[in-house]
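Figure 2 data, in text form.
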Amino acid sequence: MHGVIDRAAPANVQVRAADHGRHHRLFVRLPYTLYQDDPLWAPPLRFEERHRWSERHNASLRSRWTRRFVAVRGRRVTGRIAAIVDPGFARTWEEATALFGFFECADDPESAAALLAAAEAAARSRGMRRLLGPVNLTPHDETGILLEGFDVPPTVQSPYNPPFYRQLLEGAGYELVRRYYAFSATPTDEAAPAVTRLVRAAARGIGPARGVTVRSIDLRCWVDEARILWRLYNESFASLWGFVRIGWDEFRQRAKAFKVFAEAELVRIAEYEGEPVGFGLTLPDINEALRGTGGRLLPFGWLHLRRHVPRIRTVKFLMLGVLPAHRGRGIGPLIAYETQQAAGRLGYERLDLSLVQA
């Protein structure tokens, strides 16, 4: 959603700065209140949500300016928002455009308008003229709002919200600028005939993918493998709208978090004559285990996770990238095929492929 910065806050709602102290704690806690009766919502671990706002634990904060706010009506916190200035995004894609993210709100148009007005004023103080979002800090994080499929449990790294969010944002003058899609498959779905021919030809050393091999990562050499993935990610996605190059410290932190649940067969690197040219990152959908924890590991959340992690049945195909010089050779379909086969061997029942730009 995209809007021009030119509004005043409604008078019936108070907006409080939430960068520190009590209001910051309210900012972090709000989703757990808003979604407490929603059986589909997967509560993120609370300590991880606190760490998102620590430069020590989140290197992405070091290169971005942020301001956080909560909306209060009477004694009730009705919403939250963050204003974000990402110099890399503004320089590469949208000049004088700030981002807003972490938007959560009750079905209260005045609270939504007040939050957006506060974010707009904060962005304006940094010389910005437009606001785009929701983007939860960086383009590498949760992006957008859910427009359809409210009866489907969200997978990890996917947006989730009530149906009225679109009305709240459009009612405040924001308009839709991009659409993303999610797709679902199973490991037993038959590959398209063209993919089957491609795989067979590659195995015989002929066809457009000759010389290409697809391997699993080696979890024993995680740092070395992560550096390969980091380079491939930055180079493969550079021309994708909204993408901002990610630094090594940022990527290393994210890779460390992914490693906890990563399965080697689901993280694939394609090589051409021994050189990495593409990758696919697929992870077990930890959201299936998080539902029912309330975001807490103690006193009993860790037992819930321990019991449910082995029962995860869905994997999330998070990323698929191929270096520009090697596109058109079928490397992407090869990676996807190998990933689908691996998911079946590992006993998973469903693959979620998202988010995909229209």
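Caption note: The mean pLDDT is 92.
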